[in-house]
Amino acid sequence: MEIRELLTGRTNCSCGRHHTCPIASVIIGENACESLPDLTVEYKHILVVADRNTYAVGGAAVSEQLGVRAADTLIYQTDGVLVPDEKALEALRGRVKPGIDLILGIGSGVINDLCKQVSFECGLPYYIVATAPSMDGYASKGAALILEGMKVTLNAAVPKAIIADVNMLREAPFEMIQAGYGDIIGKYSCLNDWKLSHVVNGEYLCDFVWNATMEAVEKTVRLADGLNRRDPQAVRALMEALVAVGILMAYVGNSRPASGSEHHMAHYFEIVGIVRGEPYFPHGVDVCYAAIETAKLRERLLAVEDIGAFRHHFNRERYESEIRRIYGPVADEVLALQSKLGWYGQDRVSVYREKWQEIRRVLAEAPSSVDMRALVEQIGLSYGQFQAFYGAEKISDGISYAKDLKDRYSVLWMYDDLFR
Questions:
Q1: Which are the contacts of 408, defined by CB distance < 8 A and separation ≥ 6?
Q2: Exposed/middle/buried for 202, CB within 10 Å: 0-12, 13-18, 19+?
Q3: Same structural domain, 85 and 145
């Protein structure tokens, strides 16, 4: 569906819910920043937020359009990767002085999440000027943050406006374009997880949102050649897909249509990287690599024709030891989350036995690992580089324990239930 259609919402959906989207404007095109004077006409004291890199890219264009109404500017001076943690949030909260009536971010993932969260806390609207087509969170309600060392997604609010200048987007570092493509391609995995949880747990599933998300995925698959050439139309189409998926997340009120096992593994690589001081790929790049790994898990599960011999099993002592080995200083938070959920105490194997043929049909709908690898490599990414970068042990640990970072069922849980 076109973004303009999604912005109008959907009443009386077949899932039984009304879907709404409070985003007022999405402007994606050449010279999109020229729309800022009209979009911001009602605001007089605007706080502009960026980091050094994103301000260098978009700061001049934004300042020119806002003029004296840009009452203050926060430019994060962090060396390396800006982490959306307590320190970054506090720096932004401290700049929301009396009179500020709009927060306007210039950036992509981290800047968007920080502005989203603080604007929500302060009851202020926010706009985002996108500097890269790198992730699908621009239009979503969730603010992805790292609090007390844990990756968490807090329900916040969508931006009132998204402005994306294609000339700016196509000049982003190519790994950010790869990340945006990878974030969308990973939906093959998470959409299968959503349907799997619907069968296993009776989780709510909206066919309209599921199908619309898949439509965005299938459009993106065809963009790889153009993206490799930084073709403006391909870059625009990728950005439209990323925003559309964000709106669809807003429709259901969480990230389920766009985040599953592949995202959990990507979060794992990020958290472990931060904890250990080790490098990690951009989020969307990790997502599409991880989607190859989750496809392998589905293939192993599909090879099980008779599930009768499997039984529920759980060794708590071994589990806690492994969590502490992997997550170190944030292990207590991980253990506390799973203790609260109580999922390790549940006997899902009996449910699998009862519904195994239906489960196998769902698992078989997802692309194979060979197909996923081909999709990843057509954007210039190397699965072999992923394997060498992280190593077999870290990847194996992610397969076993990335799921423990989240409160969402996925193929990682089924694989663990049957093969741990």
A1: 193, 197, 256, 259, 260, 264
A2: exposed
A3: yes
DSSP designation for 68? G
Q: Is the pLDDT of residue 337 over 80?
A: yes
Q: At what angle do helices 283-302 and 369-377 cross, to 10 degrees?
A: 160
Encode pLDDT of 244-302 as tens digits: 999 999 899 899 999 999 999 999 999 999 999 999 999 999 999 999 999 999 999 99
CATH code for the domain of 36: 3.40.50.1970
Judged against a pLDDT cut of 90, whether residue 149 lies above it is answered with: no
Task: Name the burial class of residue 138, with classes exposed (0-12), middle (13-18) and buried (19+) by CB atoms within 10 angstroms of its CB.
Answer: buried
Rounded Cα distance between 378 and 133, Å, is 17
Verify that 108 and 38 share a domain, yes or no: yes
Q: Within this chain, do residues 270 and 162 fall inside the same structural domain, yes or no?
A: no
In a domain, 394, yes or no: yes
Q: What pLDDT sits at residue 362?
A: 98
Among residues 172, 190, 218, the one where a domain terminates is: 172
**Residue % of the chain over a pLDDT of 90:** 90
Residue 414 φ then ψ, to 5° = -65, -45
Residue 186's domain comprises: 179-203+256-419
Task: Answer yes or no: do 127 and 189 share one domain.
Answer: no
- The reply to whether 297 and 381 lie within a common domain is yes
Average pLDDT over residues 233-250: 96
Tell which residue, 256, 231, 260, 232, has the closest CA to residue 245.
Answer: 256
Tokens read off for 63: 């300042």
93 lies in the same domain as 192: no
Percentage of the chain modeled with pLDDT above 70:
100
